[in-house]
Amino acid sequence: MIIVLQKEASETELQDIVARIKHYGLEPHVIVGVARTVIGLVGDKNGLEPSFFEGLPGVEKAVPIMAPYKLTSRDAKAEDSIIQIKNVTIGDGKMVYMAGPCAIESREQILETAEQVKIAGASILRGGAFKPRTSPYSFQGLGERGLEYLQEAGETFGMPTVSEVINPSDVELVARYVDILQIGARNMQNFSLLRQVGHSRKPVLLKRGLSATIEEWLMAAEYILSEGNYQVILCERGIRTFETATRNTLDVGAIALARRLSHLPVIADPSHATGRSELVTPAGCAAVAAGAQGLMVEVHPNPDTALSDGAQSLTPRQFGQMIKAVQRVAGALTLSSTDEWWERNVV
Ligand code: PEP
Ligand code: MN
Fold it and tell me: pTM of the full predicted structure?
């Protein structure tokens, strides 16, 4: 259930309602929107009806949320959530590009990549230090040393950073070094990890699980929000299907649907979605056409020698070309929504 406050509701009225919610053993989540403040109720409502709250001072209405994900849903917050990470804004209508190697391999490698992706147009630097590899014999990442290199590269080139955390006990460590905590596809339903990043105040990039439904993905986000961390970015990275020609199948419809169902920003990862460097640009364009507000792309100075995911990694030059193509799609979407464009091109 959400309680929508009257526009003119006072702070005292808000606090009274919050106290009453707590008194009934529920957890209030105050969500301040542009037009309205709403309070999301989380917990076992045990027969409490919306009408119980509707008579209270400051309350405009109380509405049940039908979806199993509550705080994540558009019903809880009608307008898009915008996440500010240092100098970068996600979800404000401007495309955001996160780029970097699958795995941080050395100080030189991440510094070189950072410099080149920054020049090409990326604003956030990615790099894996704790790698969830399919084989225990594959390169597992440099761990904390990798995070030190990533932090140095991010600071040197003025880019916020993102890196995956795979263990609940490592959340604090990873959060000391990076600006965004990444939850990988394989851990999307690691509920203790989700709760742990929910306690962190760092934004979380939540990848969709390999075989997760859209509802399961949004429920995973709900775990994080319900712990008080509302800064979640959803990332579609392809799902498992019968098709083997591509590494995964980019679920373009899921991007459009997630944007409708949730107020959280949605981005896409065309690298893991396709597994093939030559498909990254077309898949990235499709994702943006469907409503993705940013892309995460694997870029390596020399993909042939990459210790992880070389086949899907772009060179910095290819990445720059990809951005040009994607920006044309993003620009066309903005233009097509203006009357001027219709008059010039359609009527
Ligand atoms: C990654 O981004 O490096 C990664 C492992 O991605 P995913 O969790 O989507 O497979
Ligand atoms: Mn990878």
Answer: 0.94
What is the pLDDT confidence band of residue 337, given thresholds at 50, 70 and 90? low
Residues in the 5 Å CB sphere of ion ligand 2? 102, 309
Ligand 1 pocket, residue 294 CB under 6 Å: no
| Cβ count near 148 (within 10 Å) | 16
Q: Whose CA is nearest to atom 6 of ligand 1?
A: 184
Place of tokens 């000391």: 176
CATH number at 83-345:
3.20.20.70
Q: Which residues pair with 128 in a beta bridge?
A: 103
What atom of ligand 1 comes closest to residue 235's alpha carbon?
9
Q: Which CATH class for the 2-63 domain?
A: alpha beta
State whether the beta carbon of 141 lies less than 6 angstroms from ligand 1.
Answer: no
Instruction: Identify which ligand lies nearest to the alpha carbon of 185.
Output: 1
> Do residues 255 and 295 lie in contact, with contact meaning Cβ atoms separated by under 8 Å?
no
**The pLDDT of residue 261 is above 60:** yes
